[in-house]
Amino acid sequence: MKVGFIGLGIMGRPMALNILKGGFDLTVWARRAESMAPLLEAGAKGAASAAEVAAGCDVVFSMVADAADVEQVALGAGGVAEGARAGLIYVDMSTIAPAAAQSISARLLEKGVTMLDAPVSGGEVGAISGGLTIMVGGDAAAFAKVEPLFARMGKAATLIGGPGAGQVAKACNQILTGVGVLAVAEAFNFARKSGVDAGKVREALLGGFAYSRILENHGQRMLDRNFKPGFKAWMHQKDMNIVMQEAHRLGLMLPSSAATAQLFNAMVGSGMGEEDSVAALKLLECLSGE
Amino acid sequence: MMKVGFIGLGTMGRPMAEHLIEGRARAARLEPPCRQRRLAVALGALHAQRWPSWRRAARSCAPMSPPAPTWPAWPTRCGRPGAGAIHLDFSTIAPGVAKGIAAAHAECGVDFVDAPVSGGGVGARNATLAIMWGGRDELAPRLAPIFAVLGKSAVRIGEAGAGQVAKACNQMILVNLIQACAEAAALANAAGVDFSLVREAMLGGSAGSRALDVFGGRMASRDFAAGVEARLHHKDYALLMDEATPHRRATAGGGGGMAAAQCADGAGLGQAGHGLAAARAGGGSMQGSLK
Question: Do A200 and B119 touch (CB under 8 A)?
Fold first, then answer.
């Protein structure tokens, strides 16, 4: 099986490296030539465009910034659809709106390309360790073919449903993590202002119903006042914007998600966009007169 | 042999009291220094007249009951325990009220310990509660054997009232996560995606939480029977907002959770589990999901 990978940034590079380490024949392309260098050194082949990647591969992955990029990579000039062989499976692992994924998937299908939307959770750490959680939408037969490759990148890949379902799952994931980060930040801010040790509070709460991976990991980073990314606030802002777009499209009231989206707006507006989401604590402190 | 009383035998209190009865001998064996001590005295004597014999035998001093406003009146209604006793309160009440009771008890030489719990009815039945307590550090050895039979962890947060601050933090995180689960479920449902698969996929990742596991699981199977009734989370959130006001905390999500809990109460879902309330009210498309 010949595999292609497009987009070699913070997430894409280690994911592509893990596929390569699995012994697969890998061809890569990135807009910036310097992004390709580490993969070429590790033994991957380089291509001159997304179309060229598609022409030589059975499965092509992409990991890019937003829906406009995915649209460009998939259907634009020099894109995947242009070079695709019959039966190509295109797997987009970026986080984009479910509606955008469905639209791109439908247009690719007209050109004989089967698309899976397969966004991930787990961040750079998960991408490097091959411990990502992968949420997939699309055709079951295509999912089965790609599963061995997912196994190189993640510890679990779940087929959620048809086209766009993986992005719906990712939106759900971002609701839980975004609201979770804000809740932990509020709790720690509350504890401190009450004159109580937030570290003790975290320790006590880890054993109870309030346990979450966010409290455990992000909570510890808040206590350490380690605001280094991680997952940047502007990225979470972007993802919460997708959630709000979907809420608008579907006529859904999502009050806590809305409050959380506003928090990320405020973080980016306050110049914290490049910091980790856990810097939400600093913003709350600032708004509470600290 | 230490004597332990228990007042308030509801969903939480009953299994906790039963564990204390079963664990009495074990606790004494584990903690020999406690044997000769009277951990608590006859605060519940008035009520004991109406209780079955085992409860009469257990002289009560560990209330577990929700309505905070009644507590300041409680010592006058029941009389105060003798000096050296510990009044160990597992209820969730406002930190300020807990501090007030502690100050009043201190005048009679009685220690007040606020030790709210997390883990719900399941945690109470399985003795796996997370206990967060506030009170004098010196009381720890006397409290340890009690906590050991009720929960899997007990952390001293600080002085009296600090346990309630931790519990408020607990509720802040838990209620927001339940709400987030409900919103995720509502989004998945509206998009025509199976939430049980979404939940399964998310559990292993950074979105994993006990709320997603337990409450999210019940939302996926649409099991809305009461575990923690929505009205109790509503009460806890009112306490939280009361606390936030003097501190002028910024609690954005807290506002959202409050709105949702009130919404649920207003919609007449107060007696249902919070899962139900949030999944229905938080879902927003109320007419649709109420069917």
Answer: no
